[in-house]
Amino acid sequence: MSVFTNQVQILKGVAQMPLPVTDVTLLKAYLAGVMQRADHHANEVEMIALALTGAIIWKKDADRDIEVMQQQGETKNVLWVYIHGSRYAFSYNHAAKAIEMREGTTRGAILHSFSNGTTLSDLHAVFALL
User: Most exposed among 10, 21, 53, 122, judged by the fewest C-beta atoms under 10 Å?
Assistant: First the structure.
């Protein structure tokens, strides 16, 4: 279980608990929700979201859970992962119409942005360097 699983995240004044993704069934349910929301509101990222999920699984630290935001029992479009001991947050930016990779938290420095315009080669290059 992740060190941050029990840490309360405060977003928009509402306390949130990250949900640890400990098996493929939970990851599949989270991804299904992301894809459904992308189909309705964010079709600029629906294809890259699938490739990004694979890249995250490829590079995540084996001893740490992937975590996803949950709000009122539903998962949202935020995911946290540790890669080589560093924590990264992935979230959809509505204004940029892209999934942002941020350092540490959803308010951390933007390290990369991904959309359907991102090539698989570019995605691979980003994660290969982590």
Answer: 10
